[in-house]
Amino acid sequence: MLFIRGSVGAVLVAGLTLWPLAPSVASTGQATSPIVNVWTEPNDGYVFLDAAIDSAHHSVDLSMYELSDSTIEHELVARANSGVDVRVLLNADYEGTEDNAAAYAVLRASKVHVEWAPAGQIFHAKYVVIDGRVAYIGTGNLEMEDYPSTRDFWVEDASAADVNAVVRTFDGDFAHAETTVQAGGLVWSPGSTSALVGLIESARHSVLVENEEMDSSAIESALQAAARRGVSVKVVMTESSSWTSALDTLARLGVHVRVLSSDQIYIHAKVICVDCVGSVGTVFIGSENFSTSSLSYNRELGVITSTPKAVAAVDTAVNADYASGAPVTNPVAPPTNTSGGSGVTITAFESSIGPGDEDSLSVHVTKPGESCDLKVTLPSGYVSESHGLGVADADGAGDITWTWEIGPSTDPGTAHATIACADGSVQRDFQIR
Predict the structure, then answer these.
(1) CATH topology of domain 3-327
(2) 3-state secondary structure (DSSP) of residue 329
(3) What is the DSSP string of 280-294?
(4) Which of 51, 57, 114, 191 has the greatest number of beta carbons closer than 10 A?
């Protein structure tokens, strides 16, 4: 195992991430970083990034998921031609070699040192480091056609420890070595789930969320738990059938969810604002989508900060998006009686559950001692054989409870629970996340 101590105290460990000894800490208990500037897109535009690249005297390091901005490409070439050491790392996975082919060709034909990111891993991080002294970290790709219609945020981080950590991590990625350097409030993926869940769990009064995706059981559970303990949780996203089930479940469990239509601004931002009132609070801004891939496998970068201007920017924009969205309402649907009248009533049921978790269902029947049979059909169409399902007898009060495990390899989707008794039967759908 190789240990290297950086010039400003960040510890670099091959294949591992370590926290620095004394990061700044917000009232939430989260390590944070000071932010110099913040830009809200599409209002502010990308002139700030043009100016930053043009100002480089010694080096430019850029890591990008999608690059299709001729202005920035030409600026990178111009800096390289003037003697600046320009390094660009472009995502190759998930059609990246197609999406970034034109930019790669332009840069490759110049003095820019351009490399494809390691194969087999999505490099979704979006950041630029200028002269090893300042890092620009964003939620948005550098795609010109998306600039006018997409909600994104960028921040300027000039913390010496943070910038050093980003450069050293970039060095490893550029060399196709598995290295991550942690400092301050930086949030790297792989492995960002605990930091983001921890931020949500720290909320005392409110959580405000914008994200492009909602496909992480850990994040969804944290949002649900916050709502249950009385925190005001607001989520705003662009409407998509891909996230309907997850958003319906959040709405049913007390989260305030609103969605924007396709002709409104597109929510591409990935932000969490905890206990934010005006310019006070703690905010995460980064490239991490709420999905298992993004949090656990991709290369991603974000930052947690309590800097007032960053908090105010996110609080203002996300609340405005929320106000213009349509509420998601999903009242609990009654069970469907499929035969025999109303002699069977579901009294308790988990409507959304993850693979590997324990599920339970309770019913009440009119006849004590009556036998009922519970069958669960999984999203694949397979009838579950988990221990705990099948025939059970009602107790003296007419109640029955089944408890069973959802297999850890169960596919996500809609499952069906069917309870058949002598006095009738009921069916209820539920979601495997």
Answers:
(1) Endonuclease; Chain A (3.30.870)
(2) coil
(3) EEEEEEES--EEHHH
(4) 114
Enter the tokens of residue 124: 């979704």
Distance in angstroms (rounded) separating the CA atoms of residues 318 and 30:
21
Please give the Cα distance from 199 to 233 (Å, whole number). Answer: 13
CA distance 430 to 102: 45
Q: What is the rounded CA–CA span in Å between residue 4 and residue 14?
A: 9
Q: List the domain boundaries for the chain.
A: 3-327, 336-432
Q: Is the Cβ–Cβ distance between 251 and 259 less than 8 Å?
A: no
Domain 336-432: give its CATH superfamily: Macroglobulin (MG2) domain (2.60.40.1930)
- Report helix angle 70-81 to 47-54, nearest 10: 10
Q: CA 8, CA 167: separation in Å to the nearest integer?
A: 12
Cis ω for the linkage preceding 334 (within 30 of 0): no
With contact defined as beta carbons under 8 Å apart, do 115 and 89 qualify? yes
Rounded to two decimals, what is the model's pTM? 0.74
SS3 31: strand
User: 341: buried, middle or exposed (CB in 10 Å: 19+, 13-18, 0-12)?
Assistant: exposed
Residue with tokens 């105010």: 312
Contacts of 44 (CB under 8 A, 6+ apart): none
Cα separation, 24 vs 34, whole angstroms = 8
Backbone angles phi, psi at 378, to 5 degrees: -80, 165
pLDDT in tens, the chain (433 residues): 233 323 334 444 444 434 333 457 776 678 999 999 999 999 999 999 999 999 999 999 999 999 999 999 999 999 999 999 999 999 999 999 999 999 999 999 999 999 999 999 999 999 999 999 999 999 999 999 999 999 999 999 999 999 999 999 999 999 999 899 999 999 999 999 999 999 999 999 999 999 999 999 999 999 999 998 999 999 999 999 999 999 998 998 889 999 999 899 999 999 999 999 999 999 999 999 999 999 999 999 999 999 999 999 999 999 999 999 999 985 544 445 444 455 788 888 877 888 888 888 888 888 899 999 999 998 888 889 899 999 999 999 899 999 999 988 888 888 889 999 987 888 888 888 8
User: Strand 390-393 vs strand 271-277: parallel, antiparallel, or unpaired?
Assistant: unpaired
Burial class (CB in 10 A: 0-12, 13-18, 19+), 350: middle
